[in-house]
Amino acid sequence: MSPWRSAPVRVRVPASSANLGPGFDSFGLALGLEDSLTAMVSDDAGVLIEVEGEGLGEVALDSSHLVARSMALAFSAMDVRPTGFVLRCTNAIPHGRGLGSSAAAIIGGLVLARGLHSAGDSLLTDQDLLQLALELEPHPDNLAAALFGGFTTAWMSAGRALVVSQQAHPSIRAIVAIPEFKVPTAEARSALPAMVSRVDSSFNIARAALLVHAITIDPAYLLEATEDRLHQEARRAMYAPSMELIDQLRADGLAASISGAGPTVLVLAGSDQADAVQVAAGANWRVEELPIASRGAHVDPVPGS
Q1: Is the pTM of this model over 0.90?
Q2: Domains, the chain, with CATH or none
Q3: Residue segments in the chain with a per-residue pLDDT below the cut of 70
Q4: CA 193, 199, 203, 204 torsion: positive or negative?
């Protein structure tokens, strides 16, 4: 008897913003901008991939595609392998902008593979998926937000990633200002110093602790809580226009920070600040107001299936 579902499976997975200022490699926030991944097992050998939206004409269309690689990882963990499958990616998350597109592809692919197996939910827990994801991306911040949704704190313990997910205060919206240029994550990491001062470390610890309170309970503290001394200034030259925008927005009282490795600027604010961010950013930036996504990656019914 075949272990595979006969109907196509669709997974929706959110964008995410990591760090949020002081929470380097720890904090993540799921955003209401989703990629949609649909797959169906085939009797024909190999992988057939179609891509729409972000990444069209740029990403691989074979088994090296990041979603396909993630699916293969999950198949292996379940000790199964389909003869082939068809994969359709409808991407809304910009690539190379610090909005978790790689994490979304990895987590989306893992959840999709699990969903294709009729007993997948009993074979792989969400915690299992997170651990598998670390084989493709070693930092759990974006991964956790993409998988669990909400405001996440992720950390490593004895080689395993652990996560606490909380709901953000209902008044908070994420306003993202997305520039036209990209910053590869690997290059952004290479710009970080090997050592930081005790003073700067203490500063960030205090701000990170305050940020948990500000995001979940009292947004009045967001401006101070999103201050950072560990990574943003060290990479200023890599995304100078983004840092200039952050300086301007923070001077105007808005809680702006670099989203992940950049260059997107994240502003945590109320629902009436998007116009102010657009004015400050100018016409060459794409500004969107996004809700905080309370759900992470999930199987969504395919119409007509």
Answers
A1: yes
A2: 9-167 (3.30.230.10), 173-290 (3.30.70.890)
A3: 304-305
A4: positive
